[in-house]
Write a structure and sequence with these properties.
Helices cover 69% and strands 0% of the residues. The chain has 14 helices and no strands. Helix 2 packs across helix 14, helix 4 crosses helix 14 and helix 5 packs across helix 13.
Length: 337
């Protein structure tokens, strides 16, 4: 019988004689790494350089800007351009800066996001787990609607909002006026305006956000194991019970994806804001356009840069706060069928 050595020194020597084990260490400065990181650095600089110019310009006064060195940091930092962009710049007839447009955008954003995500979540859940006769046809029509250009729908929606407001007013007055006259009060006709109001713009954003959000939620819920859904059905859970107790707690990543998409799209929208609202209800982006493209007075580039940065702070902040969840939502089924 062969004898085996149990001496640790002998065992270590025999292993060293066999040569090193494991993968070969990779060189840090390999040609592949230099090409990869070099490309990433160039792309990052390409996107960050304009942002740097905007920030340093917004912190300079006009005397320093006229010297012409765009890339130099400010000699004396001033926040007066930011104050003027927020509260003093003229955006048409009014000279109250972007503050009024900011609160208009908030009043548009919050109900639009809540309404569109709620409807799309329920629709996507229904189309994935509670299929009915004709559900696939309905889903196909909904998806086709997502690819229709907005410009094609502008004028028909104007007519729809105008007539809907008139119809709602007539329906309310039919009930309200006889009751008011019966009790002898001072009766006035109720007038509901959807076109030109923030309520009409909320409806428009909710409608246009539903197709793509429904697609996201349907694909996400379809990726959840069917056995989990069937087990809940066996335990007696119904439509709403499964949604609130099982599906919704598992939907945080896709909810973050939907919120980021809607917040970015609605907050940055210019076309719908300028078409479907009046001057006093303009969102922040329309007022930014009025400041930047003003043809009266001196062109104040520092105020323009500050106004642009103020307008982009909200979606940028939301993305940085929830960026990791956004990536998780995409990877967890946001683009899967």
């Amino acid at each position: 019988m062969a004898e085996f050595s149990t001496n640790p020194a002998t065992l270590g020597a025999s292993r060293m004689d066999d040569g090193p084990r494991g993968p070969r260490p990779r060189r840090v400065l390999s040609s592949t790494n230099i090409m990869l990181y070099g490309t990433l650095i160039i792309v990052a600089l390409y996107y960050l350089l304009p942002l740097y110019v905007m920030i340093v310009t917004s912190l300079k006064d006009m005397t320093e800007i006229r010297m012409g060195n765009v890339f130099s940091p400010p000699v004396e930092v001033t926040f007066q351009p930011w104050v003027k962009a927020w509260a003093e710049a003229c955006t048409g007839v009014n000279c109250d800066g972007l503050s009024r447009g900011f609160w208009n955008s908030v009043r548009i954003l919050i109900p639009s996001v809540l309404l569109s995500i709620t409807i799309a979540l329920i629709s996507g859940y229904t189309l994935s787990k509670w299929k009915f006769k004709g559900s696939e046809i309905f889903f196909a029509i909904l998806i086709v609607g997502a690819f229709i250009p907005y410009q094609v729908m502008l004028y028909p929606i104007v007519i729809l909002l105008r007539d809907s407001g008139i119809g709602i007013s007539n329906a309310i007055n039919t009930v309200w006026l006889p009751v008011c006259e019966t009790f002898g009060g001072e009766c006035r006709r109720v007038r509901v305006q959807l076109f030109g109001s923030l309520s009409g713009l909320v409806i428009v954003h909710s409608i246009f956000g539903m197709p793509i959000l429904t697609l996201l939620f349907r694909n996400y819920f379809a990726s959840i194991p069917e056995e989990l859904f069937k087990a809940a059905r066996v335990d007696g859970a119904g439509f709403w019970g499964i949604l609130f107790r099982i599906m919704l707690p598992m939907s945080l990543p896709i909810l973050v994806v939907a919120i980021i998409l809607q917040v970015t799209g609605i907050w940055n929208d210019f076309l719908f804001g300028v078409v479907y609202t009046r001057a006093e209800a303009y969102p922040m982006t329309v007022q930014l356009n009025n400041i930047v493209n003003s043809v009266q007075g001196i062109k104040e580039y520092n105020v323009n840069m500050a106004a642009t940065l103020l307008t982009g702070l909200v979606p940028l902040t939301i993305y940085f706060v929830s960026g990791k969840l956004f990536v998780r939502g995409i990877a967890a089924g946001a683009v899967k069928g």
